[in-house]
Design goal:
It is built from no helices and eleven strands. With 115 residues, the chain is an all-beta fold.
């Protein structure tokens, strides 16, 4: 059974930074493409960043500049670094792992940007 787990969310002030992490059991994270998505209250889930198993990254144009996706293969962990956070970044952030035809989602981690 595959389980994906995000961590590192929390409350941060506007302008602050936060890094969320993604690990998994039952699948080798290093063999997976990884995506970070977010879902704001009442809105659809949206893509924040993608990284392939060999380290190529891709960002929607609206996400470029403040978000950085990375992975540490030694630790089998993926990261999303978020800088200059705004209240509008408040959302549940989800990690998605894909390998072949399979896609796995975590439960998400809440990020709240508020003073």
């Amino acid at each position: 059974q595959v389980q994906v787990a995000e961590s590192g969310g929390g409350l941060v002030q506007p302008g602050g930074s936060l890094r969320v992490s993604c690990v998994a059991s039952g699948v080798d994270v290093n063999d997976c493409n990884m995506g970070w998505y977010r879902q704001k209250p009442g809105k659809e889930r949206e893509l924040v960043a993608l990284i392939t198993s060999d380290g190529r990254t891709n960002y929607p144009s609206s996400m470029k500049g403040r978000f950085t996706i990375s992975r540490d293969n030694d630790k089998k962990t993926g990261y999303l670094q978020m800088n200059s956070l705004k209240p509008d970044d408040t959302a549940v952030y989800y990690c998605n792992l894909t390998t072949g035809p399979w896609s796995y989602w975590g439960q998400g981690t809440q990020v709240t940007v508020s003073s």
